[in-house]
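Moderator note: this is an archived Q&A kept for reference. The question asked for a predicted structure of one protein chain; the sequence and the answer are reproduced below.
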Amino acid sequence: MQTHKQADIPQNTEVGYVVSAQDYLVFIEGLPNAKVNDIIVTRTGGRALVSALDHNRVEAQMLDAERPRPGDFFTMSTQGLRLPLSSKLFGRAINPIGLALDGKASLPPGGEEIDLEIVAPGIEAREIITRQFYTGLTTIDTLVPVGQGQRELVLGEARAGQNAFYLDIIIAQRTYKRICVYAAIGRPELEVRRFSEAVNAAGAGDYTIIVAATSNESAPMISICPAVAISVAEYYQKQGLDVLCILDDLATHAKYLREMSLLAGRVPGRESYPADIFYQHSHLLERGGNFNKLHGGGSITMLPVIETALESFSNLIPTNVMSITDGHIMFSAGLFATGTYPAVQVDKSVTRVGRQTQIFIHKVLSDKVRSLLADYKEMERYASFGSELTPETLQTIKRGKVLEELLKQSPQTFIPWEAQIVLLTLVFTGLFDGMEIDAIAAKKKVLIDTIKTDTMYTKYFTQYKGMKFDALVESLSKELSGAKKALGI
């Protein structure tokens, strides 16, 4: 006589029975044709991901909340892992298996299959990165430029203003008509909800999708979150669109991979992480890039995130991801605490691709600003000894302080790159030499608005190509009336 469970099994269906279980990890006998990353389902529809194969058993990790017991059975899923990517996902927050997290209507079933182990496109599918990825943040666009299709690591301590930074970059993409995919990997549920609300409140929901596996989810769900988010980004990239993909954050992702590996009894590697941890991250990040028409065109600009304490920057995960990416932006909680935003340590940040995408005059300006800031820091230390300073040294210190002030930017204030060039070049005209820093800070917004709208300065926006930096300084020196009026001098 058939048991109730046996009666529920469809005929001619491959079946596997649970022989042991540890929380979300189940070991199954049967399912002879199962492959790694296949989706298998329980009688009640609970989904599990096949994670390893042995001679006589299958290891799988539960994606849903269900926890099977020994004796329960699994069958092969006919659907696999699918998301309705062709549906209107913009403005939505979903988890990696397509459940709505924003209180809105559920997504329709089915859709496009998500391949968690897709191989990154080879060199034949890629083009040289030649376009700059503008963020509307002067510090980034001028001093640490990012190329469209670049993989730039965001590295820093907690509470350094990173969430405001991601929101600003997403808001800026409205101007450049890019799709944004934000992956919240193991982040607190309240933080994800607030970020989603901020995105929609800023009007950025029209082109932004949030894929979130919060800290309330199981480790297997969190482990697949970045792969699902990148698959969503690839869907739009293959339509010839430019996509920004933020992975926040891979240090948390690595910790959950370590938990899963240790629970499964695998031999731990360095710092107890699984031996393939470098592969786990590299095969994800390699899917970013700038692609040719044969591969759909479009691009995926990746901003993977590592949030870690200052003394942990040289640990395994930060150094691994540094070696995979094309540079890093270093955030400092100390700078943020002093009111600096974005709290980027320019001297410790690196971009290996972005510099080649800047137009010539922007690149020269970047060199001038970096050089002046370095001289200012050195001379300021020298001045602390009480030595008498020359007029040239005093001017360098003053202009360095002015640059620091102009590089500070309030959250959600977009500055076009064209205006950034005029704003920073004005420092070299001597405009601010006789002003107090507090006065500059008070009038900075008015000055920026003047640069963005006054034809005295907007005319340069179309003349940058082929223009020399010294010629721009000389020309602006003769046209300071608009800036002086804005500054009240």
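Archived answer notes: The mean pLDDT is 93.
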